[in-house]
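seq:
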Amino acid sequence: MSWLCGGLRWTAGRPALAWYGGGGPLEHVERVSALTYGGDVAFRVAGAERLCVGVRRGGCPLRAVVPRRSSGGQCPECARLERSRSVAADTMADDPRPYAVYLAWFGPGLVKVGITADERGSTRLLEQGAVAFSWLGRGPLMAARRAEELLRAALGVPDRIPYKDKRAVRTSLPARAERAREIEELHRRAGALVGWPDSLERAPFEAVDHAGVFGLEGLRPMTGVVTELVPGGVVAGRLLAAAGPDLHLGAADGGVVVLDTRLMSGWELAGARGAEGAQGAAVGVTVPVKSVERGVQGGLF
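struct:
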């Protein structure tokens, strides 16, 4: 059986790569492989094409080919089906589960409001790469959604922050106390707003910090970002940090390359044999990488 990558998962507060069986059009057998900071990540793209991951990573019955640079990893039909029952797309208003409203901090001035199913705990915050966060309240889905809209309208807090902005500030974060202070002030202002849904139970301010979980302390600035995977291409390096879907890899030349693992989903990958140095350390990145070194515009390694 061949195994297709399903991208990064946060399991029990730790990063892992997910895999599912790709031997048949409807087959779905998932497994995960844990990632360890300081360990080597080394793989070669074994497949000739990138396949759609299907609805909820269940495999695509059409085995459709998707663009290499797509972060979604789905064909149009599977993407449509995914959104037909999605809280994010507001097509699942009848979900009876309780939801939690949160404030997530990604860097100075980068705070967003969002909601997540209460049963998922902080997993959604890890998936987004939130460096720090605090809960605002818990209650029915539509009450949580109204609270989210209230903060956007009254305080101008967005519900979305681009990944490129999150990446840009990860290596220059202020001290932990300062990280908490910004969301504490917004939490206070949010609590004073008029119009909170009565059915939403307020949560006291309590900052949760993920810098240690992500491995961000002392992280070196990135020098490049992988733009796509290609057949036969190799990605290999020392895992320095993981935040949201991103892996920060120490490359053989001393640089730090960021790999958005959403680009891995749908590819058949294999261990990168022959991509190890004399000390056993993985080396080599042979896929397209956009340089983010100062003074370089749109270059490739």
